[in-house]
Amino acid sequence: MDTQTATGQRSHAVCIPSPYQSHIGAMLKLAKLLHTKGFYISFVNTEYNHRRLLKSRGNRALDGCRGFQFLTITDGLPPSDADSSQDLCAVRDAIRNNMSAPFSDLISNLNHTASSSDFPPVTRIFSDGFMSFVTNDAAQEFRIPIISLWTIPACAFMGFKQYRTLREKGLTPLKDTSYLTNGYLDTTIDWIPEMKDIKLWDLPTYLRSTDHDDIAYNFTMDATERANTASAMIIHTFDALESELLNALSSMYPRVYAIGPLSLLLDKLVKEESPLKSIDCSLWREDTECLRWLDSKEPNSVLYINFGSIAVLTREELIEFATGLANSKHPLLWIIRPDLVSGDSAILPREFIEETEGRCMLACWCPQEAVLNHFSVGGFLTHCGWNSIIESVSAGVPIICWPAFGDQRTNCTYACNKWEIGLELSGAVKREEVERLVRELMDGDKGKQMKKRITEWKSLAQEATNPNGSSSMNFDKLLNELLT
Known about the structure:
The chain is 41% helix and 13% strand. The chain contains 19 helices and 15 strands. The longest helix has 20 residues. Pfam families: UDPGT.
């Protein structure tokens, strides 16, 4: 049955993620949830990512289903058939400068063809929080409300929100590169609501630039400042995990909804036989053989290693990780993208292959949620992307944190110090420290405490996504307000 607004208009949501793997995944989950509530869905990828999705999942992968279609817009960047993530700076520049007009044209075309298609005119735009540069002009032109989805936790959003104030107070940009190591980043920031004793070091890392025109700093600063242009904000978290920060944000913005973990909500709302189950968004071909390999391992014995879709290692870091992991003596499932090593191929040392024979599986990509929920996986070495952390919480798997950039630094601080579910690998990657942390996570007393703690958070995440849980009720409240 179609969902309708108070005026009787059928609801058609255009959903547009940031063009990165984890952002696409979170937005797709939200789109599926909306579809279960009767929304028509038009899901918009860049042409580049659309081609990658077809390449990884087959020509029928984006056929969609009744009332759910995939569309594309250009990002204005040079054409490429590379099977890798695009340059971050180039993508941010494209989001700012290239994609607004194509998106407006897409909305115009959808509305123009509504009378002759199965899809009604567009009634709502669900935009990734970092895509307001793309969506705001169309929203104003066609008078369509925007709901923003922030695929970062409340703590990271609050950190990005301080960027303007940090600049006005003269704390950023850094005076010179010596400020990275002279203790300056240990400066306590005492004005952020509900982030007591937070240091510059703990805030998203783009503030560590010495350049006033730094692209990443200015992009994220401007994007978070534009958050108030949305009719409502969805933050991919849940009330119990970040209640104080969510309350603080609710005092700053009119409609803030903590809705997550999205994967748990989806599991409870989408039936196994639903065609939505077959719609996925992996930009790399997933190796499902790893699940059969995991079947042969003992419960909680395997360490899963995945540094996400964007982070890169140096050749030296790869060798240090490999040696430390091999020396830990634990079974390993290691995801190694073809572009994982900067400027080089991700070829592991021969000694690693020999030492881990029979207890290590390597793959280019995998179905991460299925891996984390497998009985044999007992720990996760991660770059601390929010998607990975909230999936770890949902699965009850403790983590070793090696944050790379951006919000990952803040996510790591909260995972280790606030939620007590992680151990941090800090400083330069050293094989001895990698080995020590793996042994502590998988066998030590600290690891047992973290397992107990993350099991408690898992239970709270399940409660939040039950029919009367906070995330379920927030989702229903959002829909009710959208339709009135």
